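Input.
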Amino acid sequence: MATIETERLTLRPFTMDDADFVLDLFGRREVARWSGSGEPMNHRDEAVARIARQPGRAGDHPAAGIFHVSTRAAAAVGIAMLVPIPASAGLDRDDLEIGWHFHPDAWGNGYATEAASALVARGFGLGVPELYAVTHPDNVASQAVCGRLGMTDLGLRTDWYDKELRAFRLDRP
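Output.
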């Protein structure tokens, strides 16, 4: 998985040295509430395990990956991903999801949009025909990022994760 440089950010693969950042990020209730179980991470071992699972979660599409996002000054600010999105039970889907989680100290700087834009370019450049994003129905900040990316709002859907989520799609130009 390659490192990606944008105007202000570096997206690179995670290493185990990033465990303290992952714990800090997902240990915050305001971040964790939008991810997985919605419960904050409590122990460094959970962060290490999350990093260890990343290659499997990313799958084998050449565009896919889970990226540590930092400013060019090397301040860790978040995570961005382009990964297979698990279809809900009984559905036969094979979609890629674009997603992000950023540290609250980094909110409001446009980093999520910048990082996601880089992953959109990566995905489309490697032949992905469409990308999806799913958000908790109340996560208006992430929904705004989807809008800035030019994604189409598909409304509330149950196609993925066996949950009702607000879904967005972006087709390759």
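The first strand starts at residue 4 and ends at 5.
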